[in-house]
Specification:
Strand content: 15-25%
EC number: 2.7.1.73
GO biological process, one term: GMP salvage
Family: Belongs to the carbohydrate kinase PfkB family.
Structural class: alpha/beta
Strand order of the largest sheet: 7-5-1-11-12-13-14-15-17
Helix content: 25-40%
Number of helices: 14
Largest sheet: 9 strands, mixed
CATH class: Alpha Beta
Cofactor: Mg(2+)
Bound molecules: adenosine-5'-triphosphate, inosine
Keywords: ATP-binding, Kinase, Magnesium, Nucleotide-binding, Purine salvage, Transferase
Length: about 425
């Protein structure tokens, strides 16, 4: 496990200290390991640049993720091939991307649950998925199926807006009995997306997901839900709000999804509303950066050293130096919020925004699992007198998440090809110092 974010202060994890006890944590031998577990519809992204006329030709709604039938799939694929329009074919899936990026950032194990074709030909989509996934992502628990995985046509227009057309294949055929109870119970977190609830009558993915959520809820393993797309939530916001309140501990969304589920278009107010239901909220806001909201017990709250920010909640970032806690673990829970602008104001040229949010979530998961890892290996550390769910403060985590998203914006794929540098150059360091 690499420790998260850029650490400049001693009170963070002193990985470079010569202390022999602490050094045990540097060498991996004899340490207990934690992992996170995610479920996804296993898909390969097929990316192409298109215009509105192209979307109209295939009856696709701009900006949506929609499932398409086989006749549309075939016509779409033929057309993309004929006109030589395919830019990239790369492993995708919102949770697949998140697990991959988590494993790259943390240099540690994650487990991906879903389906995989049992017979794989070199060069097939299943083959591509496996080749483009970090070796730190444990794929041994995938359920074999007799047929293809899914394909996600990722159609990008001039404004950078993405339209997803999903050809499902057998991606939704994960069965509840394929979910190992002990695997879920021993995970540091179970990560799911709203897409997993979009299934038809003979598809079992939704039941499998609910089974996993049930195991996690029973065992007190945090359930992390990412909302995927606003269109899915808008169909029944009430159902989603109830599901989140009953079963979810950590909610990740962008501002549009935040509005769909809470009714608030201000990301801070949306995050605040979601805090009625969950313990920790991450709300990404594109060029406006990222908001986080969480709970801290009054006696553990820490005041920010940054300027207090105006907003719909006055001076909302006052306690952003606090580590997040479960509300139920707080005697006197208070709400802490943080906002961080994009790393370096965002790159000069954005190559791709696809998956920037997934990568922010991967960084947050890294921080959560680092806390579990530290707790497992140094249980009597003063750090754990506070029963926190995060390793770092909300302010530090959101910087780290923005830093990780930046890396996706400057490359072509939603999946990181390498971890973050151990040391940033001097210009970048000012971001961490602020
Ligand atoms: N145009 C931009 N300029 C600067 N930073 C950006 C821009 N777009 C995204 N980012 C960075 O990426 C992070 C996540 O972006 P965004 O809110 O677009 O995620 P998202 O819509 O959930 O993405 P996805 O669903 O593709 O994963 C932001 O918090 C910000 O740090
Ligand atoms: O229905 C879906 N299920 C799973 N993943 C999806 C779906 N639609 C889009 N994406 C995934 O979202 C990622 C960017 O956030 C893309 O890589 C795409 O594969």
């Amino acid at each position: 496990m690499k420790f998260p974010g850029r650490r400049r202060h001693k009170h963070y994890f002193p990985v470079e200290d010569k202390d022999p006890l602490i050094n045990q944590l540097g060498s991996d031998s004899g340490l207990k390991h934690s992992y996170i577990c995610g479920i996804d519809q296993i898909v390969v992204d097929i990316e192409a640049k298109v215009d509105q006329a192209f979307l109209d030709e295939f009856g696709l709604q701009r900006g949506m993720s929609q499932v398409i039938e086989s006749d549309i799939t075939n016509a779409l694929y033929e057309r993309l091939k004929r006109d030589n329009m395919i830019d990239y074919e790369f492993a995708g899936g919102t949770i697949g991307n998140t697990m991959h990026n988590y494993s790259v950032l943390a240099d540690d194990r994650s487990v991906l649950l879903g389906v995989m074709s049992e017979n794989i030909k070199v060069g097939s989509y299943a083959y591509k998925f496996l080749c483009n996934t970090s070796s730190r992502v444990d794929l041994n628990h995938l359920q074999p199926v007799d047929g293809p995985i899914g394909r996600c046509f990722t159609l990008i227009d001039d404004s950078g807006e993405r339209t997803f057309a999903i050809s499902a294949g057998l991606m939704n055929h994960l069965r509840p009995e394929s979910i190992s109870q002990s695997l879920i119970e021993n995970a540091s977190a179970l990560v799911i997306s709203a897409y997993l609830m979009r299934t038809t009558a003979n598809e079992t993915m939704t039941q499998a997901t609910l089974q996993a959520v049930h195991y996690a809820n029973q065992a007190g393993v945090p359930v992390v839900l990412t909302l995927g797309t606003k269109f899915l939530i808008e169909q029944d916001p009430q159902w989603w709000a109830e599901f989140v309140e009953k079963h979810v501990d950590i909610l990740a969304m962008n501002e549009e999804e935040g509005e769909a589920i809470t009714g608030f278009n201000d990301p801070l107010l949306a995050a605040d509303k979601a805090l009625d239901w969950v313990d920790l909220v991450i709300c990404t806001a594109g060029p406006r950066g990222l908001f986080m909201a969480g709970y801290v017990d009054d006696r553990f709250k820490r005041e920010t050293e940054y300027p207090l920010l105006p907003g719909a909640i006055a001076e909302f970032n006052r306690y952003e130096f606090s580590r997040g806690m479960r509300k139920a673990d707080c005697k006197n829970p208070i709400r802490a919020y943080s906002h961080t602008a994009p790393y370096m104001g965002g790159p000069d040229t954005i190559k791709n925004t696809n998956g920037a949010g997934d990568c922010a979530l991967a960084a947050v998961l890294h921080d959560l699992s680092a806390n579990e890892y530290h707790k497992l290996n140094v249980p009597n550390s003063a750090k754990h007198e506070q029963q926190a769910i995060t390793y770092s403060s909300l302010a530090q985590i959101s910087k780290y998440a923005n830093r990780a998203s930046y890396e996706v914006l400057v490359q072509h794929s939603p999946r990181l090809s390498r971890g973050l540098p151990e040391r940033e150059d001097s210009l970048e360091q000012s971001y961490w110092d602020k």
